[in-house]
Write a structure and sequence with these properties.
alpha+beta, four-stranded antiparallel sheet
């Protein structure tokens, strides 16, 4: 879900800035966070160049030895930087929400109480020991993914 939200926000940002810019850099940092900017990534980072002139053509670029930023006006850089900050803040909120929900799920799954789930047909079914174990494993994986800072 966080990646979907991020993609939607970044797609919207690209649509807003297509009038003033024709080329974007897209890369992932070490933590897997997606970045889209008119400013190239730090040196040593593999990235893609997305060209709006060629109707969304994407060019793969391996990490250059020296990264030379493309000249752009400060008026365009600031909104992109602000958008990146907003995306990072929203991603942090989504991770925090997912962490709390995974912890709640883990707690419920380890209790002795009977747990019911609603099936695709709309009927409630009691979780079997096998289903509980599978869901507990999912919750633990989510805790590792979302609760680590």
């Amino acid at each position: 879900m966080p990646k979907t939200l991020l993609c939607c926000l970044l797609s919207g940002a690209l649509a807003v800035f297509t009038v003033s810019a024709q080329e974007y850099y897209r890369w992932q940092d070490k933590s897997g966070q997606l970045h889209v900017s008119q400013i190239p990534p730090p040196a040593g980072v593999d990235y893609q160049i997305v060209s709006m002139q060629a109707k969304g053509a994407v060019t793969e670029v391996k990490a250059p030895v020296v990264s030379t930023p493309k000249e752009s006006t400060p008026a365009v850089q600031n909104p992109v930087a602000e958008l990146n900050k907003q995306v990072e803040a929203m991603n942090a909120q989504v991770r925090q929400h997912n962490c709390k929900q995974a912890q709640i799920n883990q707690q419920r799954l380890t209790e002795e109480a009977v747990l019911m789930v609603t099936g695709d047909d709309g009927k409630s079914v009691e979780l079997t020991a096998e289903m509980r174990a599978e869901q507990l494993e999912v919750a633990e994986k989510q805790i590792k993914e979302f609760c680590q800072q």
